[in-house]
Write a structure and sequence with these properties.
alpha/beta, Rossmann fold, four-stranded mixed beta sheet, 12 helices, about 35% helix, globular
């Protein structure tokens, strides 16, 4: 199935027509049935339209260095990065978890100026409305001659499977994964995702990966960035509770869910965990909570941590280890002058 916007095609590549957005109710309840202090809420709750707006306010804060530093690094090294991508001679450029594409726009413009053959840029995301809005904004602001812009509606797994399909047979591809998004996974999972895109398609069809990875290990700086003094982080994280209540709003137990997820009964905490090389975000009930939702009894003790999202801080050495385990070779590292924040391409050594 495809949806047509003015000059934009969004291709539905979902292996299951029940998208992660449509199973948020079940995923939310499943996460809350875990053992004590191992319970979770899906991070996808943070990324509806209202959540994206709250994140944009986080990203605009000077203390929140990851967004600013990566954007500055990409702009400073735009010529080198675009030349490297053009040198990979891709037919297809696919961006994983494309989001707003604000950092992608200047990179596409620089790449477009270097291309001597047409390239199709595919933005991969699970939220159709956000995907359409971001693609429209991209096309409105960036005139492209050699790059055709399209969207892919699906998960990372769907994207890798799609590259293995008949439609992409013979296409040479390059992959973008920016925003330190790979470090939201455990290292092993992140490596498996990288490998799934590197190995999809025919031999010789992989041009490389461009990754944006935060390797900052300054505890104080990390803690301020991920728990902003103006309260922007807390408001964004607590939005997950409002989004969870909204998931159940049309169901018979909507009132019960609204009571359970009432943000006034929760607080936010974040912790830098150096032995795990990551910052962990938790929502914590300020009193005992019990709810009966969709036939499930959900109980949380006062003070019990519920994980919502993590952000790994992986150095060049960490990324080298991850890539080498998957048969990938890191070729180039572009590092920020301010902190250890690198964006680099890697290609397969197989």
């Amino acid at each position: 199935m495809s949806r047509q916007l003015p000059s934009i095609t969004v291709v539905d590549i979902r292996s299951s027509k029940s998208s992660p957005l449509e199973t948020l109710d079940a995923d939310t309840l499943e996460g809350l049935r875990g053992s004590r202090n191992a319970k979770t809420l899906p991070s996808l709750l943070l990324w509806d339209e209202a959540g994206q707006e709250l994140y944009d306010k986080v990203a605009a804060c000077p203390e929140y260095y990851p967004y600013r530093v990566e954007r500055e690094l990409l702009n400073q090294r735009l010529d080198e990065i675009s030349a490297t991508l053009a040198g990979a001679v891709p037919d297809v450029l696919i961006e994983l978890g494309s989001g707003s594409m604000a950092k992608t726009a200047p990179l596409l413009a620089a790449l477009d100026a270097r291309l001597t053959a047409p390239v199709v840029y595919y933005a991969l995301d699970v939220d159709l409305s956000e995907l359409e809005a971001s693609l429209s904004a991209l096309c409105d602001t960036v005139p492209l001659r050699n790059i055709t812009v399209r969207g892919l509606l699906g998960t990372y797994e769907d994207g890798a499977d799609w590259l293995n399909g008949d439609e992409m047979a013979g296409s040479r591809r390059a992959v973008l994964w920016l925003g330190n998004s790979m470090a939201n996974f455990d290292m092993g999972v992140a490596g498996a995702v990288l490998a799934s895109f590197a190995r999809a398609g025919n031999a010789g069809s992989f041009g490389g990966l461009l990754l944006g990875v935060d390797g900052c290990r300054e505890a104080e700086r990390i803690c301020v960035a991920y728990n902003l003094p103006g309260g922007q982080t807390e408001r964004w994280m607590k939005h997950a509770l409002r989004a969870a209540a909204e998931v159940f709003a049309a169901q018979d137990d909507a009132a019960e869910a609204a009571k359970f997820f009432d943000a006034d009964n929760w607080t936010f905490q974040g912790h830098w965990v150096p032995e795990r090389k990551r910052f962990e975000n938790y929502l914590i009930p300020t009193r005992n909570l019990h709810g009966h939702i969709q036939g499930n009894t959900i109980a949380l003790d006062k003070g019990e941590r519920v994980g919502i999202v993590t952000s790994g801080k992986w150095t060049r050495g960490d990324i080298g280890d991850i890539c080498s385990k998957q048969g990938l070779d890191v070729q180039t590292w572009w590092n920020s002058d301010e902190i250890d924040y690198g964006a680099f391409p890697s290609n397969t050594a197989l």
